[in-house]
Design goal:
With about 350 residues, this protein is α/β, with parallel strands linked by helices. The protein folds into 2 domains: about 130 residues, translation initiation factor eif-2b, domain 1 (Four Helix Bundle (Hemerythrin (Met), subunit A)); about 220 residues, Rossmann fold. It is built from 11 helices and 16 strands. A 7-stranded mixed sheet has the order 6-5-4-7-10-15-16, sandwiched between helices. β5, α7 and β6 form a beta-alpha-beta unit. α4 crosses α5. The two termini are about 25 Å apart. The ligand CSC[C@H]1O[C@H](OP(=O)(O)O)[C@H](O)[C@@H]1O binds next to α2 and β9. It comes from Thermanaerothrix daxensis. Belongs to the EIF-2B alpha/beta/delta subunits family. MtnA subfamily.
């Protein structure tokens, strides 16, 4: 386990590490209402596709616990409202909807008149989602190892570590696994404007892990690939379409273009919970647009002239043609992704079912 917890269920409440204050302050907040959870996801107290999925699952448990409903019918209505509220908090990361829908389909399959049983069913499923996430991330790291030379230099974008997940991380989990398995690792950390998940969060996590790195501005990645040795770019994802088109933090597409131009392998670390086979390609992936304020000011200090307009898409979509491989907990997917991704999703689903049966 990392020396910090992104999220934890404790005494019938959800405890979150407030990532907006990192790296200079480690402060935890305790939430008891689903409305607070939706706001914490929206304002990025907690962020990262797998982390917000697990957080939303625990948000559903709080909704059941706080519900004033006296009948199961009323409780189900309350839970549907909570599901809608949570899913609306951030639109791009499919993990959010995936986790909430997974909870609701379990609840709707129950035949009980006992609201308490519904709460315990939801809480147990939230714990399962959290446990699966950590196992998934560790497996992604192991699956990536054969792709990496003994001495390996990465460029990494945004934050995909324990802070973006329940623990261990996805793309940063690959970097961590390489380090833990004796590879000589170095990382160029994209600062990742405008919320600086790289400079604030990834740098903080790499320091804790003892992995050497240098922070670079987002616009420097092409220059670094042209003038220094970079063995691989590794990034996370928020939604992967059937054809492999991948939504990830804004700037990922530019990074993929630069990697392609310099012949540097571009790897996506993708828990199968982030793969959305219902979308044929990336055109239909909803791209969250956040406030102009995030660009024209930082920490409340104006950067741009007063009144300067800004356009702030929080994600972009990298076309599959620029993605060398997609690494999941079920293995490594190569193009054509229309064929390899469904196999990965199906294999991971079978493993989850086996994991459940072994743990019953
Ligand atoms: C483990 S993937 C996390 C994924 O989420 C980040 O976005 P945000 O910080 O806005 O939640 C970024 O896209 C990462 O790749």
């Amino acid at each position: 386990m990392a020396p910090y917890r992104t999220l934890e269920w404790r005494n019938d409440a959800l405890v979150l590490l407030d990532q907006r204050l990192l790296p200079h302050e480690v402060r935890y907040i305790t939430l008891t209402r689903v409305e607070e959870v939706a706001e914490a996801i929206r304002n990025m107290t907690v962020r990262g596709a797998p982390a917000i999925g697990a957080t939303a699952a625990y948000g559903m448990a709080l909704a059941a616990l706080q519900s004033p409903a006296k009948t199961v019918e009323d409780l189900l209505r309350h839970l549907e409202q909570a599901a809608t509220l949570l899913k609306a908090s951030r639109p791009t990361a499919v993990n959010l909807a995936w986790a909430v829908d997974r909870i609701m389909s379990l609840v709707n399959a129950l035949s009980t008149n006992d609201p308490t049983q519904i709460f315990h069913t939801i809480l147990n499923e939230a714990h399962t989602i959290a446990e699966e996430d950590v196992q998934t991330n560790r497996q992604i790291g192991l699956n990536a190892l054969p792709l990496l030379p003994p001495k390996v230099t990465f460029i990494h974008h945004c934050n995909t570590g324990a802070l973006a997940t329940v623990d261990y991380g996805t793309a940063l989990g690959i970097i961590r696994t390489a380090h833990e398995h004796g590879h000589e690792v170095f990382v160029y950390v994209d600062e990742t404007r405008p919320r600086l998940q790289g400079a604030r969060l990834t740098a903080w996590e790499l320091q804790q892990l003892g992995i050497p790195f240098q922070i670079i501005v987002d616009g420097a990645s092409g220059f670094v690939m042209r003038t220094r040795k970079v063995d691989a770019v590794v990034v996370g994802c928020d939604r992967v379409a059937l054809n492999g088109d991948t939504a990830n933090k804004i700037g990922t597409y530019n990074l993929a273009l630069a990697a392609h131009a310099h012949g540097v392998p571009f790897y996506v670390a993708a828990p199968t919970s982030t793969i959305d086979l219902s979308l044929p390609n990336g055109a239909a992936i909803p791209i969250e647009e956040r406030s102009e304020e995030e660009i024209v000011a930082f920490d409340g200090h104006p950067i741009a002239p007063v009144g300067a307009p800004a356009f702030n898409p929080a994600f972009d979509v990298t076309p599959a043609q620029y993605i060398t491989a997609i690494i999941t907990e079920a293995g490594i997917a190569y193009p054509p992704y229309e064929q390899s991704l469904p196999y990965q999703v199906e294999t991971a689903k079978k493993w989850r079912e086996k994991f459940r049966s072994l743990n019953r």
